[in-house]
Every structure is written in C-alpha cells, then in structure tokens.
Amino acid sequence: MVTSPPPDSPTTARRLRAARALWRALAGGTARLASGVHQTWRRSLQLRVVTITLVASSLLVGGFAYLIADKITNILVENAQTDVLLRLQNGREYARKQFNPYSQAQEAQFQDTIDGTVNYLAGGDPAQTSGVVVAITGDTFTPGTIAPHASPDVQVRPLIGQELRASVAAGNVAHQIRTGTLGAERTKYLVYGSPVPTRFGQVELYYIVPLARQDATAADARATVVATGAALVLLLGLLAALVTRLVVTPVRVAARTAQRLSAGLLDQRMVVNGEDDLALLAASFNQMATNLQRQILRLEEMSRLQRRFTSDVSHELRTPLTTVRMAADLIFAERDEFDPAVARSAELLQAELDRFEELLTDLLEISRFDAGFAVLDSEPTDLVPVVHRVAERLAGLAERAGVTIELDVPDTPVIAEVDPRRVERVLRNLVGNAVEHGEAKPVLITLGMDQSAVAITVRDHGVGLKPGEEKLVFNRFWRADPSRARQTGGTGLGLSISLEDARLHGGWLEAWGAPGQGAQFRLTLPARAGDRLTTSPLRLVPADAALPFGGPRDGGLLAIGPGSGAGALAIGPPGESDRAEVTS
Amino acid sequence: MRRRLLGALLAGLLVSAGLTGCGIPDQSAVQVDGRLGPAAGSGSSNGGGARPPTPKDSDDPVQFIQNYLRAAAAGEREQAYARAKEFIAPEVKNTLREKQQSSEIELTVVRLREKPEKTPPNEYTSTVTLKVQQVGVLRADGTLAPPAASETSYTFQLRRVDQASPSLVINKLPPVLLTTDEALRDYYRSQTIYFWNSDQSRLVPDQRYLSTTLPAERRVTEVARWLAGGPPDWLAPSVTRVPDGTTPINNATGADGHWELNLSMNGANDAKLAKLATQLAWSLPTELSGQLDLKIQNQKRLTIDLKQEREANPAYPPGERPLRFAIYDGGIHPLSLAGEPTRRVPVAAAKNRNVVSAALSHSGDQVLAALVVTRSDQEQRLRVGSGPDPVTVFNDSRISYRSIGRPTWIRSLDPEHPAGLVAADGGLYRFDGAAGMSLVPLAVSGKVTAVAGSPEGHRVALVIGGGLYVAAVSIDGGTVSVGQPRRLTTQLTGVTAVDWIAPNELLYAGNHDGRPAIYQTTVDGAQETPLETDIGAQVTQLAAYPGGVVGALAAFSYMYEANKAAYKNNPFGIIKREQVLDLPSPAPGAKPSNPTAPFFSF
C-alpha cells in the first residue's frame, strides 16, 4: 500500500521554500525583463514609433476587419434566412392545404399525411437533400397525440429550443440559430418555425437548415480579412521602422558626433548628404562645431598664454629675487651693527622676502598643476608618522598662537598608497590654517581608515565658516574678510594647492564650518592608488556640532514640511518655528 | 509603458473579438419574423354525414345491437374499432383484434335476414341473435370483396353497465367487425371509378364505397389512391392499371372548383396524362366540378375542366337511341309505346321467322343481329348476321341446341369482328359474326341459363345454377374470354334472368320466399332493391336499358316476359298486341297471341 507522505513540516517547508524561491526567481526575471523592456523603450525612438504605429494600425485595421467580417457574415446569414423563410412560407401553405381535410388530430391518415408532407417538403429523397430537415410537431396538443415527424428521420427535438418552440406554439413565425448534431458532426443550424393552422388547432412546421457552408464561407472571409489586416499591420510597422530609421540614423550620428566633440575631439564632423532637413541639420551642426572649436582653441590658447605668463613671471622673478635675497641675508646678518630703525627694516625685508619666496613657490606649484605637469609619486606610506611629523613641525607656531594640537591617531600603522610629500603638505596647510584661525582653542587632528580609504580631519574651534563658504575657501586668493589685509597666514593659495593634491590622489578635500562653532576639514584618500572613493571613514560634520534649530527635542521626531520660499523645505521639531530651511 | 500595455490589451481584445464576434454565433436568441395570429379553432368538417350512434342512444338490446352494427360504418374507417369498442364491455374489448395497419381494417358487411331476436328477457343479461347473410368485406380501397366468412347467425350477449344504470354493454360478441348493408348505405355512398380497358378505348366502371364523412379534398385523394391501387381481382382481366409508378403525392388540395392533384408517374407524357385526366374526370365524385390541375412531380402538366372533360370524352359510346322490340308470332316486331320513336325491324323479312328471342345491336353503321330460331325438329339454332340495315345475310350455327337463351352482343368489339355470348344447353358459348359457336370455360360449375353484357362491354352478368354472377370480359385479338365469375349475394334464389339496368347495377329475377320477384342490385351485390314482388309467374326473359343517351327513356326502364306475356315498367303494364307494329293481317279465327321476349336495341 502506498501512502502519500504526511504533510509534515520538513517536506512542506521544503516545498514552500522551493515555491518561494521559484516565485522569487520568476518575479525577479519578470522585473528584470520589464526593466529591460522599459530601458529599451526609453532609449529607442525607433522602437517607440514602430510600436505606436503597430498599435494604432492594429486598432484601425482590426476595427475595419471586424466590420467587414461582420458584414459578410450578416449577409450570408440574412441570405440563408430569406431563403428559408420563403421555403417556410411555401411549406406552410402546402401543409395547410394538406391538413385542411382533417378535422381531428387522431385520424390515422392525418399522421400519414404529416409524414408525406415532411417528406415532400424535404424534397422526397432523403439521400438527395442538402442536409435540410423538415419537421412537423404538435406541441400544442397533449403529448402523444401528434408524434413529431421529420424528414430525413432524425431526432430534431434537441435542435428546436424550448424558447423557439414556445414562441411558435404561441402563433409566431420565428427563427433561431442553434448548434447541434444531426448528422456526423456538430453543425450550426438555422431553425425556422411556423405554425400551420388546421381545423383542430395548429401544428408546427420547422425547417432546420445547416449553416455549414455559410459558416465555412464566413470563416474563409474572416481568415482572408485577418491575414490581409495582419499583413497590412506588419507592412505599416516595417514602413514605420524604415522611415524612423531614415530619421534616427542621422540623429544618432549627430549624437555620436556631439559626444565626441564634448569628449574633446573637436575636429569631428557629420557627413552631409543631399539637401534635405537632415542635411541642413548636419551642416548647421558642423558649423556650430567649427565655431565651438575655434572658440575653444582661442580660449585654450589664451589660458595657456596666461599660465605660461604666470610661470614665466615666477621664473623671471626668481633670479632677481635670489640676488635680492642674498643681499637681504647679508644685511639681515649684519643688522646688529645697524641702528635699531635700519635693523628693524632689515628684519621686515627678510620677512617679506620669505613670504615672497613662498608665494613664488606656490605660484609655480599652481602653474605646474595648471599645466598638468604635476605627477603623483605614490608609495605605501604609514600616515601615523606623517601626522606626528606635521604636528611637531607646527608645534612652535601653535605655541606662539597659544593653541594646543591634539592628535587622535590609531596605535597601529595606517598604510595607504599615497605621495607622502603631498599629503604632508596638505596636512601642514590644514593644520597651519587651523592654528592660525584657532583663536587659542585646541585643534584636533583625527586619523581614521577603513578597508578602502583613509581620512584625516582637522578641527578647530575658531570663528568658523559662514554658510556657503565651505566651497569658497578652496578658491585662489579667497578671503573671508576682504577688508582684512593679508598680514598673517599664507599666500592664499594653500587650500587651492591642497585641493589639487587631493584630486591628484583621486581623493576628496572638504570643509565644514559654522559661525562660532569652528571649522573642520577632511582629507579622504583611497587606500590604494587609482581606486574610486565611495565613502569616507570619518564624518565631515563633527559630532559636537550643534544643529541649527537645536536638534530634536528630548530625542523626539523631526518634521519636514514646505518652507517659506518656493521649492524650499523646512526641517525642525514639530510645532515650533525654529526650523532650518533648505533651498535647492 | 502603461500606454503600451493598454494598447496591447486593446489590440488583443479587438483581435479576439474580431475572430469570435463576427462569425455565425453558436446560438442566437429567438427572433420573431411575424405572427400568424392565434391558432385556428376547431372547425367543423365539411364532409357532413350523420352522427355516429353511441351506446347511450338506446337501452333496448336489439336497438343497441343495431346501433353497434351501424357504429362501425358511421365515420372514418380508421376509427371503426374505436367506435365499435364503445359498445363493448371493458373485459372483452380484446375480442375485437385491432389491425395494426389502417389499410387492413375491414368491415364485414352482413344483411339481416330477419329482425334480431332477443332471448331471454332477463333482469341483468340478454342475448341477441342475428340471422344474417354475408354480403362482403369492405376493404380499405373501398371495394366490397366477396364474403370471407360463412356464418349465418351471430350471437351477442349484453349486460347492464351496472345494477343501477339501464345502460347496456356487450359482454360477448363474435370477433369480427360487423356492420350491415343498411349502415353501408347510410354512412357510405357508392362511388363509381373507372379503369381503361386494354386498348384504352373505353372506361370500365368499378363500384367503390366512400365514407360520407370525408371532406371533398379527401374524396379526391381517396379516388386517386384507388385508381393508383388498381382494379379488384375479378375485374382485373378486362382493364389496365394506371401507368406504372402512378401514385398520388400526399393529399389532393383545393376547394370550390379548383383542385390540385400531385402525382408521380414514370415516363409521363401528354397522351398518358390525357388518358389519366379523362379517367379522373369520370372517377371523381360527380358533384365536384371546376378545374383539376394535374401535377407530375410538382410540375403542373395538365389542367382540365371536370365537367367538360366528361362531356367531351364519354366513358364508352352510349349507343343508339333505345328501341323496343318484341317477338310476336315468330318474328321480331317493333313496339310502339306512347311518346317513344319506332323503327322497322332491321332484319330481312325472309330471315325473321321462327324467332324465339333476339339481340340487336349497332356497331358503327352496321346492324348486328343474333336470333334464336326454332327449327322444325324443335331444336334451336343461333342465327347471326351483320350488315347495313336491313341485314339480309345470316348464318346459322352448325350445331343445334335444345334450348338457347337470349344472346347478348359484346359491345366493346371492333365492327370487323363482332362477337357475343349466349347460354345454350347450360353452357356459355361465344359466337362470332358467322355464327361460329364455341364453349367458354368457366371456373364455376353449374348450368348457365342467362347471360347479359354490360353497357361498356367488358363485364357480363351470368346466371349459373340459379345464382347471380358477374365476370370480366377480356378481348384479345377478337377472342372473347370470360374471367373468374364472382358470385353476388342475393336475396332471391333460383335466379332466372338478368340484365344491366345501370352501369353498375343489375336487374334480376328470381324467387323470394317462393314467389317470383324482380330485384335490382349493385354489381357487388351489396344493395338490393325489390322492384316487382307480385309477378305470380316465373320471369323467363328480362331486358333493361342501362341508360346512356340522355332523355331517351325514363330511368330504369325494363321489360320482362312472364307467363308467355311481355310486361314493361314506367308505367307498369302488360305489353298489348296493339302496341306491336308491322303485324301481318291476322289469320281469321286464329287466337291472337301476346308478344313475348321483349328487348331493347341500342
């Protein structure tokens, strides 16, 4: 005896899991397919045009085909109906005459006459008839009085519907299309019925005419119409595809050319064929490209000249500066022998020359970046010593400014593939800035790393940055307060160079600051040279930074709603006016 | 994406609708094309006829049985069993075995010889005994066939339906469907139909019975079916059937002077149709008039006017105007009756001697004369002659006979080969124009004492051994042969003389309870009418004029000879000597005799 396994948990669960997996696979496949189709749909103008043409023409041709096929069928059926109705009327007249002599349904000869009449109306020889069945019934009499007669002798009762029978018994000439089996196969029949008045009531005469021929003709017509329609739709689709292709191909060429142009291949041009609109487009495009190329070349030349000028000026200034420097060094070394005022001037001269030299160095560095000569000399480097070195170097400066430099570095080495000279320069710059703007508050340097990146943040607690200045600080020669003379600090190029250094590594250099809360700069570099950065191991916004609206109250929720300006979003604790607004 | 989906959906819907929606549906709603109005109510039959008797009509046992006998005939033949069974107690209803086929339903027609007896007059049951004479069997084709049974009495037992009711019911009965000749007369009517003779020159009448309940269309249909069914057995030798494959298709239709008969016929041509049309015109009930459309397989082929057709094509030649002759003093002499034309005897005076009886007939411009003459040795011979009036050339038969009955000419023969029949010495002989006599073999034993030819010439009435017979006469190449005689049931016994008084009726003389009488009967013996019952002497000769020429004589005119004297009817009386013409001056002293052996020449 074979028993089905009980629906116990392991099997059921396994099955359930399998079903789920299948469902997931199916859903995933469908979703992938849908997204693929969607993508193709969005990308291909040709596909859209062809699809729309196909759908529109399908609707049109389908409607038209339906009308024609319907009309043909109607005509066929109507012809058959007219035909049968005529036969029915003649048959009824004949039957009426035949039954007229009888005054009782029970007469034996009446039954014979019914038989003879149906035979006669059916055409006599059952083998010769075209499938038409003639039947006479006596539905208005008590059952058994008049047996139904049919010629050819087949069982016609199932074909004559109850409804039709009732209608004819009520004295109507009526018809109905029915499907049934009289002969070998199932066929549609047109059933016509008419009462035949007799002396003793009425009997019913039915003509049952097969519609096989009409059906076949209608099917033929339908098939022809459908085939023609399908061919037409396909042809239209093909046509649409061809026409779209004619238009789309030059547009694609134009797009490709435009892409190449934008990629810097300024000598790319379209082929101009003929004189049509597309040729005009190509010609105009070419002209535009030519103009653009000319402008770009001109601007490039100008930019090149400018950089060259800067570089040249820097170089040219360096030689006299060296001479001036040597003289100044001599004077500065002998200053003790001068009177105090001259000694003071010698000191000033020395200091300004230092700055001047620094400025020249930075300008040369910047022009090297601009000229694209900067080369990254990366090697695996432990960043911990680098950080320590920078802190030590700037310890003096910090001490002068009354700033303490705090370090938060891991105990383990933080190895990254970087150019240590450039990283050190960046750090020096950042820490220097922090010390300079630190307003005698501590500066915190944090080093962090994860699998793909290393990051260093430098936090000060000075005046901070106003909103929007996070980006401006990296501009060349930018000043927070333009009226403030560049008395202290660097050359105004330090952050620009640092940014270029970070970019050269494929890293980020970002700034955060808030008025009164100080600022934090973060340098993020890929752990391996050439990797793409996705995240940074350290946060840009320090943890102790206050939110503009004071943060959520008691750890509650925050509400986001429309702000006061157009397209502005306001965020803050619900029910309070103290909210921060963000505009796009 | 959504648009695309919508579009695809719409297109799919349309295509599927187009493929399925525009074909012929599998089933449609009932559509009414018109209305014929409410069904016609039951109308009354136009056939008429008396109401069939019912068991409730009488509580008298004898009357009850008579009603029972009438009921079988009163109405449609197919319903005969149903009507009869109303009279029968439920427990014995199966005594009457119903025939499965309606064409097998037959009525046994009997004639009540005397009033039914009722014995004993009991409280609860009674017995009625019928003394009957079997007349025949009424078949589906309307013929009255010779009787099949031989019973002379039938006994019925009746009882009350229940104790309280006086109504009766039959609880014992003979297992045949009985009816009487009277019922046949009341509920049926004779319908003469005609068949063509073998050379299609004359129509031979045939007697049939048609229920009076039938409406006109069905009478037409019935007649057409009978014709298609062919003649009865006894008549078959002398007639031909309708063309092969001739059968009516369904019922004849029409009314009020326009009838339609749809037939099938093999190789229908105009000649066949014309013959059939004439046959139909004569066979259909004469009260029908107007047009008859003959259709062959639904194609209208011939239209005739029934009355005109009958007038234009007589069933058979009516013959000359009838003339009366009688034998007086050994010679044929014309009789002169008031208002009737006379002619002299068309026989040369030299041969008009010693004549006992004679038959004169006409064939074209020829006169046919057959005389029975007495020789000196009291033997009789047949003298036959033909030729223009008067006939001078006669031949005597070679053999002489002791007694020769009145000869009769067969009227259907061509003038070149005249022939006749005569009874001589108890045998039936045929004779030709040269008086050559030959014995005609008959399938019935008995002495043939009288023979009479029918007006159309294809039937003869015979008296064989005192019984009345009819037989068909067929003529093949001038040779006359007589078919199987059919005996008719008669009330008279010892029949002595017979002649045709109508195309389908015979006049015969015999004895009714020992008294000579003259009766008229139909050719099937079904309906007898006494004409003369107090004659007093044996009728030895009987001559009748069967009609044919309009206005020649009063209907049913006949003459007879009894007691050596001649009598006539219309009005009835003896034929006096003064009415005999062309008499020689009587020999003085001779006792004037009476004219004898009167006959009609036509």
Any overview of this molecule?
The complex is a heterodimer of chains A (584) and B (602). By secondary structure, chain A is an alpha+beta fold. Chain A has 12 helices and 15 strands. A 5-stranded antiparallel β-sheet of chain A has the order 2-1-5-4-3. Chain B has 7 helices and 39 strands. Chain B is globular and about 120 Å long. Residues 39-48 of chain B have low confidence and may be disordered. The interface between A and B is large, with 67 and 54 residues.
Total number of helices of chain A? 12
The pLDDT mean of chain B sits at: 84
Using a beta-carbon cutoff below 8 angstroms, give the protein chain pair with the largest interface and the number of residues from each chain: A-B, 67 and 54 residues
Strand order of the largest sheet of chain A: 2-1-5-4-3
Give the C-alpha Rg of chain A: 50 Å
SSE inventory with pairings:
The complex is a heterodimer of chains A (584) and B (602).
Chain A: H1 9-43, H2 45-99, H3 108-121, E1 133-137, E2 149-151, H4 162-169, E3 172-181, E4 186-198, E5 201-210, H5 212-262, H6 277-333, H7 340-371, E6 379-382, H8 383-393, H9 395-401, E7 405-408, E8 415-418, H10 420-436, E9 443-449, E10 453-460, H11 469-472, H12 494-505, E11 508-514, E12 518-526, E13 559-562, E14 569-572, E15 580-582
Parallel strand pairs in A: 7-9
Antiparallel strand pairs in A: 1-2, 1-5, 3-4, 4-5, 6-8, 9-10, 10-12, 11-12, 13-14, 14-15
Helix pairs in contact in A: 2-3, 2-5, 5-6, 6-7, 7-12, 8-10, 10-12
Chain B: H1 2-21, E1 31-35, H2 61-73, H3 80-85, E2 107-112, E3 117-119, E4 125-138, E5 144-145, E6 153-160, E7 168-172, E8 178-180, H4 181-187, E9 188-196, E10 203-211, H5 216-229, E11 247-248, E12 253-255, E13 258-264, H6 270-283, E14 291-296, E15 299-305, H7 306-312, E16 323-328, E17 331-334, E18 355-363, E19 366-374, E20 380-387, E21 394-396, E22 408-409, E23 419-424, E24 427-432, E25 437-439, E26 448-453, E27 459-464, E28 467-476, E29 479-482, E30 486-487, E31 493-502, E32 505-512, E33 515-522, E34 528-532, E35 539-545, E36 557-562, E37 565-568, E38 573-574, E39 596-601
Parallel strand pairs in B: 2-8, 13-14
Antiparallel strand pairs in B: 2-4, 3-4, 4-5, 4-6, 6-7, 9-10, 11-13, 12-13, 14-15, 16-17, 16-39, 18-19, 19-20, 20-21, 22-23, 23-24, 24-25, 26-27, 27-28, 28-29, 28-30, 31-32, 32-33, 33-34, 35-36, 36-37, 37-38
